[in-house]
Amino acid sequence: MQTGGYADAVARAEQFARGNPELAVAAVVLVVLAIAGLLALLRYRRPVGVRFKEALADRDRVAVLMHPDPDPDAMAAAVGVARLAEQVDCEPTLQFSGQIRHQENRAFRNVLDLDIQGIDHVSELAAESVVLVDHNHPRGFEGADGVLPFAVIDHHPGEGTGEEFTDVRTDYGASASIVAEYFGDVGGKPVPPDVHESEVEARFTLPSRECTGLLYGILADTRHLTTGAAAEDFNAAASIAPGVDEDALDRIANPQVSGETLDVKARAIAGRQVEGSFAVSDVGTLSNADAIPQAADELITLEGITAVVVVGERDGTVNLSGRSRDDRVHMGRALQSAVEGIPNAGAGGHARMGGGQFPAAAEVSREALVDAIFDSLEGDV
Fold first, then answer.
1. 3-state secondary structure 336-374
2. Which of 51, 205, 295, 356 can bridge 320 by disulfide, Cβ–Cβ 3.0-4.6 Å?
3. The DHHA1 domain covers which part of the protein (predicted)?
4. pLDDT, tens digit, for every residue of 158-182?
């Protein structure tokens, strides 16, 4: 009975198809499209780290490109991406433009013994397939505008995308948190510092060096998980904690500080102008621009101060660095507003921290700049 009913249904379907060929073809097309849509949905719903792993597996080589003058978060994310690439037989090369001057950044590179290459021209990229980490628009080297990255991993605001893979999470405090999540997505396990990698039974592993770097990247960009940190940053830090080398972490976190940096911090504090709970300090000319954000970090700790901007000049460029712990002040937007109208100026950042710069030759006095900064912090724009 059941077999006969099935045969009758098939016969009726064949008869309908012969009598209505156009409708039959349309029905087949709809079924194919439905299956394809279901497969695409299942593919999309897979963990992001799995999709990124598969994107890397399709490449023989990648250039993992950090932003100019990379900080610990950029270097940590790059190292994590490189480790994932290696485990799917994709050869990574870590590259950056600019310089690594800040003592914390140099300590990060040296303690973890990172093999990263500086570039000045697009022709020096190690591969056609470029992965941008901790920024979403290539910049800082000649020909950067012509680079179309195949993947972008970032936590900064921006419209940059990758040709095949884009993961920009502006609610995260660090790009290192995103990369750490990828290893959780693929079932990766951290390797403790006193354990050899071969002793860990897992298809994907995260050695102690990478765990240490990723954790410090998270800590550096969230001020030790106190500023701009999301729940995901805490979770990412916890997931890699078993593999962290505490001695290496301490050596990165406590590098020696140059005399000039201490002097710039002192000048920022002594020369600060205060309006309400906002402070702006012009530290003048200096040889190490990285001392400016460090001075801002120092100034924001002063009692009664909720938002600060430090201004300094190096090699014909005026640099600004801001910090905010005031819910009324989005520092990135405030700095954008402050330099609006100044030729060739650029600024931006997050709610809690931001930066900017413009040529010192621009026709704007420091007094007018300080006034514009205060107006922006106060929302009087």
1. HHHCCCCCCCEEEECCCEEEEEEECCCCCCHHHHHHHHH
2. 356
3. 276-373
4. 999 999 999 999 999 999 999 999 9
Question: Is 38's pLDDT higher than 50?
Answer: no
Write the burial class of residue 17 (CB in 10 Å: 0-12 exposed, 13-18 middle, 19+ buried). middle
Continuous segment of H or E residues that includes residue 273:
strand 273-275
Does an H or E element contain 318, and which? strand 317-324
DSSP assigned state of 186: T
Q: Does residue 120 contact residue 142 with C-beta atoms inside 8 Å?
A: yes
User: What is the structure's pLDDT at 1?
Assistant: 44
- Across the beta sheet with 353-359, what order do the strands follow? 273-275, 278-285, 307-314, 317-324, 353-359, 346-349
Query: Are 242 and 277 in a shared domain?
Result: no
Burial of 246 from C-beta contacts in 10 A (0-12 / 13-18 / 19+): exposed
Clarify whether residues 232 and 270 are in a common domain.
no
Three-state SS annotation for 97-132? CCCCCCHHHHHHHHHCCCCEEECCEHHHCCCCCEEE
CA–CA gap between residue 146 and residue 101 (Å, rounded): 27
The answer to whether position 89 is within a domain reads: yes
What is the CATH number for 265?
A: 3.10.310.30
Q: Is 12 inside any structural domain?
A: no
Length of the chain, in residues: 381
Query: What would the two tokens of residue 92 be?
Result: 């990574």
Closest C-alpha to 76, from 183, 217, 199, 208? 217
> Which residues share a beta bridge with 111?
none
The closest alpha carbon to 353, from 259, 177, 167, 226, belongs to 226
Counted domains in the chain: 2
